[in-house]
Amino acid sequence: MPPKQPRSQSAASRVYLLIYNTTCAFIWLRILFTAATSLISSPDVATFPLAYRTLEPWTRFAQTLAIAEILHAATGITRAPVFTTFTQSFARSVQVWAINYAFPKVTAPSPAYLVMLLAWSTADVVRYLYFAIMLAGSSIAEILKWSRYSLFIVLYPVGISSEWWLMYKATTVTSNMTVMGIFYFFLALYVPGSVMMYSYMLKQRRKVLTQG
């Protein structure tokens, strides 16, 4: 979740980050469009597995790619806090690999999956677009700035509750007690983790939107 860029950022780093953020924005825009059209054109639960088969590989790829943001923060090419970036990236990586990919029987037919993707993709399209425009040296429209630091107020609870529900459903079908125990441990971590992420974003919102 990279914030503003460091003053000492090299030209090569800026070009790399511009390409990275632009690429991620387009990938998440594709996911957003597909998820939204799937719900609008075929709201019947029976059609959800088809949407899952289309969206799951793209979402897993996009979120795996986002692991790079931990390295961005750790190496200093962005000023994102390493622990916060790691927490969000790790939580989503667990979700896409250990839940969505590993337990398609409970994920594919669940409305929570598409709701989660709508929340994730909306937030990430705005986030990556915001940073791409900033890295390109262009002025950021106030509506985009407001969206970047305001939409999370609704999208975070929606996304997090959907993640929690899908992980809980996975615990009801796994026969591996170790896996079940790990999932329950992660389910318990959602409470402090969610509070930490939400508090961080509220702090960022106050800092950015009160400037000027």
UniProtKB/TrEMBL annotation:
Entry superkingdom: Eukaryota
Cellular compartments per GO CC: endoplasmic reticulum membrane
GO biological process: fatty acid elongation; sphingolipid biosynthetic process; very long-chain fatty acid biosynthetic process
Membrane topology note: Multi-pass membrane protein
Molecular functions (GO terms): very-long-chain (3R)-3-hydroxyacyl-CoA dehydratase activity
Subcellular locations according to the entry: Endoplasmic reticulum membrane; Membrane
EC number: 4.2.1.134
Residue ranges that the Swiss-Prot or TrEMBL entry lists as coiled coil: none
Record pathway: Lipid metabolism; fatty acid biosynthesis
Keywords, ordered alphabetically: Endoplasmic reticulum, Fatty acid biosynthesis, Fatty acid metabolism, Lipid biosynthesis, Lipid metabolism, Lyase, Membrane, Transmembrane, Transmembrane helix
Keyword Transmembrane helix included in the entry's annotation: yes
Catalytic activity: a very-long-chain (3R)-3-hydroxyacyl-CoA = a very-long-chain (2E)-enoyl-CoA + H2O
EC class name: lyase
Keyword Lipid metabolism found: yes
TM ranges: 15-40, 113-137, 149-167, 179-201
Record's function text: Catalyzes the third of the four reactions of the long-chain fatty acids elongation cycle. This endoplasmic reticulum-bound enzymatic process, allows the addition of two carbons to the chain of long- and very long-chain fatty acids/VLCFAs per cycle. This enzyme catalyzes the dehydration of the 3-hydroxyacyl-CoA intermediate into trans-2,3-enoyl-CoA, within each cycle of fatty acid elongation. Thereby, it participates to the production of VLCFAs of different chain lengths that are involved in multiple biological processes as precursors of membrane lipids and lipid mediators.
The family this protein is said to belong to: Belongs to the very long-chain fatty acids dehydratase HACD family.
Protein name in the entry: Very-long-chain (3R)-3-hydroxyacyl-CoA dehydratase
Gene source species: Penicillium argentinense
Lineage, broadest ranks: Eukaryota, Fungi, Dikarya, Ascomycota, Pezizomycotina
